[in-house]
Design brief:
Chain lengths: 456, 95
């Protein structure tokens, strides 16, 4: 990526990004823009460069953060009404790590409200449009992040992936999107969704940029006790020889052009001397049901904190404490938030807990074991990200099951805690980007990034 | 598995949503559809399988129980609430 130097200054890089952000206003990408602050930070970096003082590895590089990343003193809405008035009292670790290397946050970007969705249409601020066809969805939930990178407004963006929210929008907009190993990056200061599944990752234009960002951010953070000990820089990439293909995803439920591209990619790999290994993974067909039990259960628990008392929206019409809770939550959450919270409370309630939540937790063990077995036979797995390219705005937004089915090939790895890297893999006949994902065992993030260079 | 109207009202109450009957109507079909979808899991044999609740390779992580200043102070946190009085968050009378 382009970092600032004496000729191309940080100020110039930031100004360019702000101009492009304004030019693409109609795509509804931003929830806030910090023009003045960004230019001030750029001037400070330029002054350092002028004096010959050391600057970071991301000096003057403009970036955007998904609007569930907290940045002290600025609004963090999670694209929801209930957090619309919320001004963050702390800064997320990832944003801090990036800024410490000289990157400049120019704004926050749109998402499905609380990251509940696969199209960014569930945003309280309206949908973000696809970078390649503005009648289609951006994908989601990190739609704003993907489109900001795809339209070249910024060099990179942060996102979060609980069930595909980085990889699916990356594939819909033709950019790279990494869902790291669970625990690789800190989640401190990022709005929680489903804590056993949430990961923070990035959107970039190249695998090299992804490697740089991971080398900066994949660190142990004492503010997030689920972070792993530092492993990224210490673990060399494994030389990939065997590439697995999941036979269970090769059927009519996946778009024929996507399947054709995957086959083509496999042929190319064979020519380069890689071995293609066909995998039977029969438990994966249950992963979506498992996900839509465990994820809502954790959502119901995490989102119970939004009660109108300590921060965020407080309903004006309420008179008693109970009315404050009920009215604030009913006014502040969107329909999909409510569906998930109610389903979560259903699967956790006495009488249903064993049949749903406990059953799903057991099925999760089987899914983890299935991946372990698969990685005994191959080094990485190559699969589609989503069953289709970007769909039309409005096509699925009123049909929750149709929207959930978008996630059928992306959620299994969140359940297993393993990493997945979405890569651009050509276009459909009508010019829509097609994405594939490379999966590997836990802590294989660097291997995935190195292998992506092979496919680029 | 089917959820009744009473179940729905109960779930709305558990979720702290003050929903009108019209809103419950509009969610009823969706929630029934979702419950119907996730119920397919009953076809998977999980006999003798241990459940997994987390995937971070660690057991308890201990730290000393000491009071340390974090990133935000009391004033900054109190500034986030709608109504504050005497360094406390003000809510309607509960008793």
């Amino acid at each position: 990526m382009k970092t600032a130097n004496k000729t191309i200054t940080a100020t110039r890089l930031v100004q360019d990004a702000l101009t492009k952000a304004d030019f693409f206003k109609s795509y509804n990408i931003f929830t806030s823009i910090y023009a003045d602050e960004a230019l001030e930070k750029a001037a400070a970096i330029d002054a350092k460069i002028e004096k010959g003082e050391p600057v970071g590895r991301l000096a003057g590089v403009p970036f955007v953060a998904k609007d569930n990343y907290l940045v002290k003193g600025t609004k963090t809405t999670a694209s929801s009404h209930i957090l619309e008035p919320f001004v963050a009292p702390v800064t997320s670790t990832v944003v801090e790590q990036l800024e410490a290397e000289g990157a400049i946050l120019i704004g926050k970007v749109n998402m499905d409200s609380f990251a509940h969705g696969s199209s960014t249409e569930n945003s309280y601020f309206g949908p973000t449009l696809n970078a390649y066809d503005n009648t289609r969805v951006a994908g989601g939930s990190s739609g704003g992040s993907a489109v900001a990178v795809a339209l070249d407004i910024v060099e990179f963006a942060t996102g979060s992936d609980t069930g595909g929210s980085i990889r699916q929008p990356a594939s819909f907009n033709g950019v790279y999107g990494l869902k790291p190993t669970y625990g690789a990056t800190s989640r401190y200061g990022v709005v929680s969704m489903a804590s056993s599944l949430d990961t923070d990752g990035f959107f970039t234009k190249t695998p090299e940029d992804m490697d740089l960002l991971m080398s900066i951010c994949a660190k142990r953070d004492e503010k997030d006790l689920t972070t792993l000990p530092d492993f990224y820089d210490e673990t060399p990439a494994k030389k990939v020889k065997k590439v697995g293909i999941i036979k269970d995803f090769d059927n009519d439920s996946v778009d024929s052009e996507i399947r054709a591209h995957l086959k083509e990619e496999c042929e190319k790999l064979k020519e380069k001397g890689f071995e293609i290994v066909e995998l039977d993974m029969p438990t994966l067909k249950h992963a979506l049901a498992v996900y839509y039990i465990i994820c809502p259960a954790e959502i119901a628990s995490n989102l119970s904190r939004y009660d109108g008392i300590r921060y965020g929206l407080r309903s004006g019409k309420a008179h008693s404490l109970d009315e404050i809770y009920g009215d604030t939550r009913n006014e502040g959450f969107m329909k999909e938030n409510k569906r998930r919270i109610m389903i979560g409370n259903f699967v956790l309630s006495s009488g249903f807990y064993d049949a749903y939540f406990l059953k799903a937790a057991k099925a999760r063990t089987l899914i983890i074991n299935e991946y372990k077995k698969a990685f005994e036979k191959c080094d990485v797995i190559l699969t589609p990200v989503a069953p289709n390219p970007a769909f039309k705005l409005g096509e699925k937004v009123n049909d929750p099951i149709a929207m959930y089915l978008e996630d059928v090939m992306s959620v299994p790895i969140n359940l297993a805690g393993i990493p997945g890297l979405a890569i651009p893999a050509g276009k459909t006949e009508t010019g829509l980007p097609i994405g594939l994902q490379i999966l590997g065992p836990r802590r294989s993030d660097k291997t995935l990034i190195e292998f992506a260079k092979e496919l680029a | 598995m089917d959820i009744s109207r009473e179940d729905l009202k109960h779930l709305a109450a558990l979720s702290d949503f003050s929903m009108s009957d019209e809103e419950l109507d509009s969610l009823e079909g969706d929630l029934k559809g979702i419950v119907n979808y996730i119920s397919e899991l009953s076809s998977l044999n999980t006999e003798g399988i241990e459940p997994t609740y987390q995937v971070f390779e660690m057991e308890n992580v201990w730290r000393d129980d000491e009071i340390k200043p974090m990133d935000a102070n009391r004033e900054e946190l109190l500034a986030l609430t709608t109504e504050e009085k005497n360094n406390q968050i003000k809510v309607p009378k509960v008793l």
